[in-house]
Amino acid sequence: MIQTILYFALTLFGIAIAIALFRIVFGPSLPDRVIALDMIGVNLISSMAIISIIIGTTFFLDVILIIGIIAFISTIAFSKYIERGGIIERKRDD
Amino acid sequence: MKTNNVILHAVVKLVVFIILTLSVYLFLSGHHKPGGGFIGGLVLASAFVLLFIAFDIEAIRKAIPFDFKRVAALGAFISVGTGFGSLLFGENFLTQAFGYFDLPFFGTTELTTVTIFETGVALVVVGVVVTIILSIVEDV
């Protein structure tokens, strides 16, 4: 029973990642693509947790932490690129 | 218009320490579990990149006064030096040793020479990644 639920949830996460991928390819504006990328990161974290429950190991928890950090940094970089036009400034003017 | 990013600065000052702690954990757990010098160095470099994104280059250069090319060179020297250190004891190149010691606070601890090699690998990864990203930025 619990195996069936886990595999069903994994399938739903796969469908959600496919929908976000559609939004990345055909998204009308740049913020749509950034939000879809962040959504793919969250779905990857969740599906990784379900995979670690299915296999029965705790080694994938480091992977969850690292995917979270990379998604955080990439979201900050994309939003700063949208707002300012550049990612890393040479000298702050304020 | 004068822009401010108070929220970004406040969040980054907190999150950088979490990322640094995770990198030290990944570096030390690399002997029996997933992790190691390469992954720990990459996470450490991502913490530096987050600092460069949130603040600017000159402030971080003044706060962390390292030349990252020299950090990479020092790491390569340490890694190769552990390889040549095994030649002093009549062993083959890059032979590693380990042993169990009774330390006063930690109890029985396993100390290896692989950790010195991994320190060199981590320094090389940090230096190379930060140098690549800074040289990409400064060309534009």
Characterize the structure shown.
The complex is a heterodimer of chains A (94) and B (140). Chain A has one domain. With 94 residues, chain A is mainly alpha-helical. Chain A starts with a helix and ends in a 10-residue tail after the last helix. In chain A, helix 1 packs antiparallel against helix 2 and helix 2 runs antiparallel to helix 3. The mean pLDDT of chain A is 90. Chain B starts with 5 loop residues before the first helix and ends with a helix. Chain B contains 5 helices and 2 strands; from the N terminus they run H-H-H-H-E-E-H. The radius of gyration of chain B is 18 Å and the shape is globular. The relative contact order of chain B is 0.16. In chain B, strands 1-2 form a two-stranded antiparallel ribbon. Chain B is mainly alpha-helical and 140 residues long. Chain B has one domain. In chain B, helix 1 packs antiparallel against helix 2. Classes of the chains: A mainly alpha (94), B mainly alpha (140). Chains A and B meet through helix 3 of A and helix 1, helix 2, helix 3 and helix 5 of B.
Give a nutshell description of this structure.
The complex is a heterodimer of chains A (94) and B (140). Chain A has 94 residues and is mainly alpha-helical.
Judged by helices, strands and strand pairing, the structural class of chain B is mainly alpha
Tally of helical runs of chain A: 3
Shape, per Cα inertia axes of chain A:
flat
Our measurement of the CA-to-CA distance between the termini of chain B, rounded to an integer number of angstroms, reads 24 Å
User: Count of DSSP E strands of chain A?
Assistant: 0
Rg on CA atoms of chain B, Å: 18 Å
The total number of structural domains of chain B is 1
Backbone CA Rg of chain A? 17 Å
State the distance separating the first and last CA atoms of chain A. 59 Å
**Main beta sheet of chain A:** none
Q: What percent strand of chain A? A: under 5%
Helix content of chain A: over 70%
Q: Any idea how many domains of chain A?
A: 1
Order of strands, main sheet of chain B, comes to 1-2
Beta-strand share of residues of chain B: 5-15%
User: How confident is the prediction overall: mean pLDDT of chain A?
Assistant: 90
Uncertain segments of chain B: none
Portion of residues within helices of chain B: 55-70%
What quaternary form is this?
heterodimer
